[in-house]
Amino acid sequence: MKLNSQIIQNIRTDFPILEEKIYGKPLIYFDNAATTQKPFCVLQKIEYAYKHLNANIHRGVHYLSQKATEAHEEARSAIAGFMGAAKREEIVFTRGTTEAINLIAFSFGEAFCQEGDEIIISVMEHHSNIVPWQMLCERKKLKLRVIPMNEKGELQIDIFRKLLNEKTKLVSVTHVSNVLGTVNPVGEIIRISHEMNVPVLIDGAQSVPHIPVNVQKLDADFYVFSGHKVYGPTGIGVLYGKEKWLNELPPYQGGGEMIEKVSFEKTTYNVLPFKFEAGTPDYIGSTALAEALHYISEIGLENVAAYEQELTAYAKEQLSTIEGIRFFGTAAEKSAVISFLVGSIHPYDIGMLLDKLGIAVRTGHHCAQPLMDSLHIPGTVRASFSFYNTKEEIDVFVAALKRVVGMLS
Amino acid sequence: MFKSLNMVSINQIQDEIIEDFAQFDDWMDKYALLIDLGNSLEPIDDQYKVPQNIIEGCQSRVWLAAELNGDGRIVYKAESDAILVKGIVALLLRLFSGRTPDEILNADLYFVEKIGLREHLSPTRSNGLLAMIKQIKLYALAYKSKMG
Ligand SMILES: Cc1ncc(COP(=O)(O)O)c(C=O)c1O
Fold first, then answer.
1. pLDDT tens per residue across span B9-39
2. All residues at 6 or more sequence positions from A150 whose CB lies less than 8 Å from its CB, including other chains
3. What is the C-alpha to C-alpha distance for residues A152 and A173, in angstroms, rounded to an integer?
4. pLDDT tens-digit profile of A341-369?
5. In sequence order, which residues have a C-beta less than 8 Å from that of residue B39 and are 6 or more positions away?
6. Between A357, A379, A408, which is nearest B83 by CB?
7. Ligand 1 pocket, A125 CB below 6 A?
8. Same domain, yes or no: A251 and A347
9. Residue A399 alpha carbon to ligand 1 centre in Å
10. Is the ipTM of this complex over 0.85?
11. pTM of the model
């Protein structure tokens, strides 16, 4: 089903926030890479769960606790299906991408890393896929290696091959760059790494909302994403890990849920996935996240990807008519993100003035300071799209940008 | 120059600023005024654009330095690489530069609320308005204790 403008208009009515007025102007929300808006069905699911399913899970013998447990575990199964995981036990709930990466950096580091070992990341990582590894490197005296990119914003796979060596313990790269929109060849990166028996973690924060992902086809060892970026609630995220790896890793946090038996002499840990889920889990969040994934699956991620590509190409074409505009990230494979600067105007000035016209874009370094340094810029203006955005909104945005640039030059 | 400026109190200048902004209803017009103010701000010497003078916590870079002149008044030098922030800097310099430490320390800045700067420009601290005011006062405090 091709998403035409009639379908998009219907889809827009699913998202109540799109009716908001900002300073009296209709909201144009182009900050989808930061977080996405929520459809009614997700909001209703949250309300429904609190009204009809709320009880602590896995513990109570009573009816409500059973219902809540079922909902949470059904969500896990649905997410496993959505990602193409082999088993539902391979899905661990976290607070988000950041916590999932921290979990692996800690537990994998404890189990497998020793002084002198190496971890490989890339130059276009979000701070969430840099800092946990730096902390591990500091703790265990490891070395962090960085895959560079070319001037279009594509990772240099030939150099990556040279960085891989017998000391490499893990490769952690983003599937899609939150700044450049580059879709990295993660299948190839995984294949190359596996030739050296090195496992790979993929940061899927910016891919899961925009392109179909199948962790088994990719053969990813770990794949992580955040609920809030894929139309689900904040505070819930997913760590997929191959069973064989998760079984070998020690727990990350201790507490309730994650134990099998506790005594003051010795505590034994629960089986997967509970070993990694200390404390009362966000069972409302998991249920609502499953609803969000169901929602986009109904629309179809292929359709979403095709429509967003069309939208992004249109935006790029229209923006190109602005004198002095410079785009960052011109990779052949690109997602629905456009980062730019105009002349010598500071991105902050553009963002502030666009805001007053009802347009939400992101400005700054986008939590990717090393990437900004490598581009020799302090930041960019970033417009990031979703399938609920329209060409009409892009027209308004481009006209507003022209006005703002006129005021600022 | 400082004498004549000093005839007018900080509060009188605040009232002037409030009046200037009150002319406009639309925020785009208020911003146009801020841009004009930013454009009229004298650039500072490169010697002041050093990392020690950068105010942290801003999306744009803001440099702020202060010197004590012969009559015990503080002269502030400040600039930013974002024009809107430069506009704010211009307002702050108009209020504070050339004043005594006591005047600066005792100032109650109500213009920020009144022209909607707090609401419109600093919800995320991203322009560092509050950080700038804090730093201006810190300089005043430092010079006051130095002067004894
Ligand atoms: C590529 C990438 N990785 C990680 C994150 C962090 O996600 P979260 O803050 O939801 O943990 C983001 C969010 O901005 C991102 O874009």
1. 999 999 999 999 999 988 899 999 999 999 9
2. A156
3. 17
4. 999 999 999 999 999 999 999 999 899 99
5. B83, B86
6. A408
7. no
8. no
9. 30
10. yes
11. 0.94
